[in-house]
Amino acid sequence: MNASSPGLSPRTVVEHYFAAVNAEDFDTLRRVLHPEIELTACMSRPRQGLESVIRFFRAVFERYPVHSDIATRLICDGDTVVADIHFEGRTDTGIDITFEAVDVFDLTDGRIRRLSQWFDSADLQRQLRSPKP
Description:
The protein is an alpha+beta fold. It contains four helices and six strands; from the N terminus they run ααββαββββα. The chain is globular.
């Protein structure tokens, strides 16, 4: 797959992103993310540049070894895609987590140049503090 192909629609690029995130496929992530990507994620400092963002995802996947980002709706407007997401996962300490999120993608040259991730961080913190059943 050449996800940075100018022939792919922004929607298709974002679909490739979600498939790569769920599979922890860093080769595909490197193809869909712009070299100068900017990432703003809840509960984290902003990241700039491909390798910084890849390190961020590696750290998230270590913390959540079981994870699934399910895009339940994609709204496309030119080179911008907004995704409603249902997240399900389990932390490295065995805590099950679920929450809804919104990601906003801005593409440049067929790649994700800017990504912001939004969710209820207070709810996530509450879930992380919950004792295991």
